[in-house]
Amino acid sequence: MSGSIDPHAAASPADSLPAPATPRASLADQPPPTEYRAAPSHQLLEVRGLHVWFELRGGGELHAVRGVDLDLRRGERLGLVGESGCGKSTALLALMGLLPASASVAGEVILDGRDIMAQGERSIRPHRWREVAMVFQGAMNAFNPVRTIGWQIAEPLRRHRSLSRAAARARVLELLELVGIPAGRAERYPHELSGGMRQRAAIAMALACDPKLLLADEPTTALDVMVQAQVLELLVSLSEELGLALVLVSHDLPAVTQVAERVAVMYAGEVVECAFTGELFDTPRHPYTAALVAATPDLLQATPLSSIPGAPPSLRSQLQGCAFAPRCGQRMQICERHPPTLAADADGRLFACHLNGGSPHHTLPPAPGGQAAVDSGTQDTERRS
Ligand SMILES: Nc1ncnc2c1ncn2[C@@H]1O[C@H](COP(=O)(O)OP(=O)(O)OP(=O)(O)O)[C@@H](O)[C@H]1O
Ligand code: SF4
Ligand SMILES: [Mg+2]
Fold first, then answer.
1. Which residues are registered as beta bridge partners of 43?
2. 48 phi/psi in degrees, rounded to 5
């Protein structure tokens, strides 16, 4: 299969996109989807068993997303965190149906009661941008340099809403006001706007068709701290004003606490813990979450910074047992052989770890020097370009 587009490079909803990833045979062979599924009225998104595999140019496969489950209520803000390469962007691109042709996808994505992935591109297309939209990683640097900001924000409106030129123009001005960009900037070119303004414009473009769910992939990277705070405030106020549900991907845990009501932590393509934001940061249950929190600088307290030894495993190989085991100071014999599953403990806290439920197995001695028993060069960076 050929795949020629880096998913992160696609900035505009109207960019010509690669052929959509095909569902695995197991899914494709299933009967057509149930048209509509009764769901609680507060439920907006239900992701069940989402898997993504990339076929690699040199042969072999990379299993980037490994059975992710997620739920989102209407208007809810969810943070998605985890080390580089753990599959955050790939999971979001799968929800949008915007993975390159080298990817295969399996699982269920129920948006507002409809399984939008059951028939691949055919079932996702009507929902993309109209109900679920995305601000891509690096979006603010991916505007077309020879088109004005206003023209580019109007593009999804022309494509997906078939608006007249005048109606599109009016909507662009409305969107600019919504994201705090003065109307006069519509005629400016991307290089004439500051980074913060360009990120606001990227958000305006994603909101053009009035979606119910916005996926924001690291929207504040490369912005200074003041502008970061403004963009995060904007996302919260848009979510509240428009009743917009938001998935915010970020490496910046303090930023996530500022925005998200719940947080899902990903490791090696899986969600390993999901909890309300305060609970997750105050009393993390999964050893990986605890390590991530401990590795976050705290400006108010002079506590020494810790780092997580080792590196995430290669996603090209089959993983045995718990993917975090080689780096985990609390690992037990069972961890080496059996993968833990995401389950609620007695307090209703959701995490995937054999410590959940008080396993009787004894703890293994720590890896030599506290280092993970993995080759630190195994972290996957291979992409199709
Ligand atoms: N088109 C592709 N072809 C092959 N492998 C890919 C492709 N896109 C992503 N990957 C691999 O999939 C895994 C997950 O990548 P992804 O970009 O989703 O991680 P991420 O969590 O978003 O990382 P970051 O925080 O650095 O943005 C990585 O191993 C990455 O190299
Ligand atoms: S399952 Fe075992 S190795 Fe994995 S995080 Fe829990 S204790 Fe550590
Ligand atoms: Mg990413």
1. 73
2. -130, 120
- What is the residue type of 212? K
- Pocket around ligand 2 at a 6 A CB cut-off: 287, 322, 324-325, 328, 330-332, 335, 340, 353-355
Q: Which residue has the tokens 């409305």?
A: 174
What six digits make up the tokens of 350?
């959701």
pLDDT in tens, 13-38: 433 333 445 444 333 333 333 445 55
Measured from the Cα of 287, ligand 2's closest atom is 5
Distance from residue 136's CA to the centre of ligand 3 (Å): 9
> What does DSSP say about strands 270-276 and 262-267: parallel, antiparallel, or unpaired?
antiparallel
- Return the ∠ at Cα 80 (arms to 385 and 82), rounded to 5°: 70
Whole-number Å distance, alpha carbon 331 to ligand 3 midpoint, is 28
- Scan for tokens 């077309």, then name that residue: 144
CA distance 107 to 68: 9
| Cα end-to-end span (Å), the chain | 13
Q: Give the predicted TM-score (pTM) of the model.
A: 0.84
